């Protein structure tokens, strides 16, 4: 049986004179770009240039809405109501969709950023995100953590869902990611991260921090472009995937 995986990466997160990530270097190695929409990061010019660069590399365009918290890079949980979350997501999706349309392109997917991504474990917040997509872009693919409440609810709402996994993050026994405030949250060894990626894609399982092997569905694999050694990791992943006969393509 032939295997394939989508490689997605958060991009367009620079703004003004401040630079984040390694978009120019990493873009050729991924198949989907999650582009910041101006709340947690990004600005109109960065959105325009990131869309253009993604299209030049035949990379699928995704909206990457986050919380309005530039200082915290959208990684701090906020007390936002479901209505506020709905409005935030509609606003940000609309902005990026317009930027894409100006370049004769359309959005392919949506993936919530940072704290908003994790807040979607709350059913009311998940429903708000889903409603925003259903109301403004029901053909978009929802990128959601494998096994999450958001993935389950989005499928029930009739959306196409891509189950997302992480090669450079550790997992808990319940299938959630280890919190970033813990020392063992990130996998910094490239060989270990590649082994985890292969296990998830080929075996459909992941080994948790306690050593337990749990099932996981892998449709799209996230790369963190702002991590040290991100380019080397992307290059190594693609080389191993080629050797293993794993195709890389958008969902």
Pick out its properties.
10 strands, TIM Barrel, alpha/beta, 7-stranded parallel β-barrel, 251 residues, two-stranded antiparallel ribbon, 8 helices
Q: What features would you describe in this structure?
A:
By secondary structure, the protein is of the alpha/beta class. The protein has one domain (3-248): TIM Barrel (Alpha-Beta Barrel), CATH 3.20.20. 37% of the residues lie in helices and 18% in strands. The chain contains 8 helices and 10 strands. It has helices at 23-26, 44-56, 82-101, 114-119, 123-136, 149-156, 190-203, 230-244, and strands spanning 3-11, 32-36, 60-64, 109-110, 141-145, 160-166, 205-207, 213-215, 220-223, 246-248. The protein has a 7-stranded parallel β-barrel, surrounded by 4 helices. A two-stranded antiparallel sheet has the order 7-8. Strand 3 (60-64), helix 3 and strand 4 form a beta-alpha-beta unit. Helix 3 runs parallel beside helix 5 and helix 5 (123-136) packs across helix 6 (149-156). The radius of gyration is 17 Å and the shape is globular.
Architecture, according to CATH?
A: Alpha-Beta Barrel
For the record, the CATH class is: Alpha Beta
Q: What kind of sheet is the major sheet?
A: 7 strands, parallel, barrel
How many DSSP-defined strands?
10
| Major β-sheet strand ordering | 1-2-3-4-5-6-9
Count of DSSP H/I helices: 8
Oligomer: single chain
CATH superfamily: Glycoside hydrolase/deacetylase
Query: Uncertain spans, ≥5 residues at pLDDT below 50?
Result: none
Structural class: alpha/beta
Q: Which range does the strand content fall in?
A: 15-25%
Secondary-structure element pattern, one letter each: EHEHEHEHHEHEHEEEHE
Kindly report the average pLDDT value: 95
Query: Which topology does CATH recognise?
Result: TIM Barrel
Radius of gyration: 17 Å
Q: How much helix, percentage-wise, in residues?
A: 25-40%
Gross morphology: globular
Count of the domains: 1
């Amino acid at each position: 049986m032939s295997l394939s995986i989508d490689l997605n990466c958060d991009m367009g997160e620079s703004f003004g004179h401040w630079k984040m990530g390694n978009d120019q270097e990493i873009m050729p190695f991924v198949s989907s770009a999650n582009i910041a929409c101006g709340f947690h990061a990004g600005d109109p010019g960065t959105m325009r240039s990131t869309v253009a660069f993604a299209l030049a590399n035949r990379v699928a365009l995704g909206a990457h809405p986050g919380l309005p918290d530039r200082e915290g890079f959208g990684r701090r949980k906020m007390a936002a109501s479901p209505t506020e979350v709905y409005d935030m997501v509609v606003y940000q999706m609309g902005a990026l969709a317009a930027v894409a349309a100006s370049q004769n392109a359309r959005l392919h997917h949506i993936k919530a950023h940072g704290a908003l991504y994790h807040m979607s474990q709350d059913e009311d917040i998940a429903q708000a995100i889903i409603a925003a997509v259903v109301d403004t872009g029901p053909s978009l693919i929802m990128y959601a953590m494998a096994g999450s409440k958001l993935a389950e609810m989005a499928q029930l709402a009739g959306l196409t869902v891509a189950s997302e996994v992480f090669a450079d993050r550790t997992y808990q026994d319940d299938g959630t990611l280890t919190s970033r405030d813990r020392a063992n949250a990130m996998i910094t060894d490239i060989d270990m991260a590649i082994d985890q990626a292969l296990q998830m894609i080929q075996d459909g399982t992941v080994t948790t921090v306690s050593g337990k092997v749990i099932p996981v569905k892998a449709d799209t694999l996230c790369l963190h472009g702002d991590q040290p050694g991100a380019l080397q990791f992307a290059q190594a992943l693609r080389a191993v995937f080629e050797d293993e006969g794993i195709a890389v393509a958008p969902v």
